[in-house]
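Design job #97: recover the sequence.
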């Protein structure tokens, strides 16, 4: 019978204590190497100069970078791409290196790397949202090429030109950067458990366990950002003009009679003996007694409102004046003798020229009132023309402006409305 032998690596053949010792030392060496690389990149960035030779600058001058030409090239590449977002580049890997050295653990690597990339890009966008100082030597913003692309691309997609709403994009990227960088570093979420620390966790006091149950930094930052966003949204909405809301009548709708709610009765399950039903004769047809409402159906205010609603908007023209008594007396002179002096007759005066009658119809006046309301609405003035008083020369339109509309605004638009 043929036996199948599995190939074992050298680590599988070693005893468990030796294997654990080697894995811990490998994690420590990896952490030390990563920490050393971070220190080198930090030194290169600290001594970065725009005049050093790099991929974007060909010069024969002396290299000012502390790490020479390689350090100048790496620093210039990072500054050109992400600008001041390099702070987010160094922070999470430094935490990873320290955790590898101390706890020999680096779990959920793919998730942390993805959050790290997102946090770096968002931090670059936040840096681009900051105003560039005159001492900034690069032609791009303070967030580099990636930061400018993300910031202006988001503004163009959202259709935001500027102002307070435009700054909201920077706040959103700031929140994304803080959450992504802290999550990539391992803060604010469920802590990784190290098998070597199980014995120490058993000896924790109640106070330390309660501190572990408290919300992390990321949860607190989410609350801060949500509160700030809601406060900014409230401030923007308060500055925007709002149309007046119609009054809502809380009374019952017509055709829906009100119903009286009967309260439920609770007992112990043993209901007493029900009394005998009382006999009542059925009323004859036509003998139903109507319910009497003590309150009057209308009051003086309601009658005044109904009178105003039923009144026509166009007022009738004033009637012609009646002839005076003196004209009537002189039209039929007296036959009796009078005194020596008498007033001259009114026939010496010329009759006034007859003015043309009011030829404008009521429909035309209504149409003019509607047209005037439309012109006022075009100028941003809302209201209703309640009365039209036609005259021989001037027609008076009475405007009732909407709540919140100042009369001075209508008066200042008199010339513009006349031209329209």
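Job complete. Output follows.
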């Amino acid at each position: 019978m043929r036996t199948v032998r599995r190939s074992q690596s050298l680590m599988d053949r070693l005893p468990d204590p030796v294997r654990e010792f080697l894995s811990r030392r490998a994690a420590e060496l990896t952490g030390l190497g990563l920490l050393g690389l971070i220190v080198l990149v930090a030194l290169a960035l600290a001594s970065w100069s725009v005049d050093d030779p790099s991929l974007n600058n060909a010069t024969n001058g002396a290299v000012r970078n502390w790490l020479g030409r390689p350090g100048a090239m790496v620093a210039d590449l990072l500054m050109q791409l992400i600008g001041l977002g390099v702070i987010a580049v160094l922070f999470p890997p430094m935490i990873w290196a320290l955790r590898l050295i101390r706890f020999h653990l680096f779990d959920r690597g793919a998730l942390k790397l993805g959050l790290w990339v997102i946090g770096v890009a968002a931090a670059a966008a936040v840096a681009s949202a900051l105003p560039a100082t005159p001492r900034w030597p690069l032609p791009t913003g303070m967030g580099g090429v990636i930061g400018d692309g993300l910031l202006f691309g988001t503004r163009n997609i959202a259709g935001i030109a500027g102002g307070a709403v435009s700054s909201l994009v920077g706040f959103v990227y700031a929140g994304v950067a803080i959450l992504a960088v802290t999550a990539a570093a391992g803060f604010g979420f469920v802590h990784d458990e190290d098998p070597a620390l199980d014995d120490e966790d058993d000896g924790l006091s109640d106070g330390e366990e309660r501190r572990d149950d408290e919300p992390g930094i990321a949860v607190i930052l989410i609350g801060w950002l949500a509160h700030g966003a809601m406060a900014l949204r409230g401030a923007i909405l308060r500055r925007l003009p709002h149309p007046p809301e119609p009054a809502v009548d809380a009374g019952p709708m017509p055709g829906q009679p009100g119903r009286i709610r009967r309260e439920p009765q609770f007992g112990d399950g043993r209901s007493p003996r029900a009394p005998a039903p009382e006999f009542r004769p059925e009323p004859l047809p036509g003998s139903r007694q109507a319910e009497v409402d003590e309150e009057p159906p209308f009051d003086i205010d309601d009658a005044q409102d109904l009178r105003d609603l039923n009144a026509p908007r166009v007022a009738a023209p004033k009637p012609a004046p009646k002839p005076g008594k003196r004209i009537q007396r002189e039209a039929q002179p007296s036959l009796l003798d009078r005194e020596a002096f008498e007033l001259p007759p009114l026939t010496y005066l010329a009759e006034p020229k007859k003015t043309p009658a009011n030829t404008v119809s009521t429909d035309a006046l209504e149409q003019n009132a509607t047209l005037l309301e439309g012109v006022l609405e075009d100028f941003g003035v809302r209201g209703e023309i309640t009365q039209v008083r036609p005259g021989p020369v001037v027609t008076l339109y009475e405007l009732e402006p909407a709540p919140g509309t100042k009369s001075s605004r209508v008066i200042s638009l008199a010339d513009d409305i006349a031209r329209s």
